């Protein structure tokens, strides 16, 4: 079974974790779309949140993983983009359920919060879960309405 393309992006604080995840994703059979940054040199996380999310919105990737120091900055920036539902996670239950119940298309990780092993577990939980629809589709629709009206 062919696996979905996954975009990855980070700022300087998340760069090493992004590079680790790129390798793990490739080894697991995912097509990886790197949206930057290309080094650990100081940079602005909103630029790379947008670059990663743009890969999803343009159809180049099905899902995206964003890394920064805490994951919070990336999550805030990503959620400013229409059509993006991003969440910062540090436990596998939440990483799975943001897909199952919220149809999240972006996982945000804090490189200073989670280690590589946990980051990979979070990525797997996120990438292997599928939106359940049903009552959850109605709720995601309400989120979309909020986005359109504000």
Describe this structure in words.
This protein is an alpha/beta fold and 150 residues long. It contains six helices and five strands; from the N terminus they run βαβαβαβαβαα. 47% of the residues lie in helices and 16% in strands. A five-stranded parallel sheet has the order 2-1-3-5-4, with helices on both faces. The longest helix is centred in the C-terminal third of the chain and has 15 residues, at 135-149. It starts with a strand and ends with a helix. The model has no long low-confidence stretch (mean pLDDT 97).
In short:
This protein has helices at 15-27, 45-57, 72-78, 92-100, 116-128, 135-149; strands at residues 5-10, 31-34, 63-68, 86-88, 106-110. With 150 residues, the chain is of the alpha/beta class. Strand 4 (86-88), helix 4 (92-100) and strand 5 form a beta-alpha-beta unit.
How would the blueprint of this fold be written?
Layout: E1 5-10, H1 15-27, E2 31-34, H2 45-57, E3 63-68, H3 72-78, E4 86-88, H4 92-100, E5 106-110, H5 116-128, H6 135-149
Parallel strand pairs: 1-2, 1-3, 3-5, 4-5
Helix pairs in contact: 1-5, 2-3, 4-5
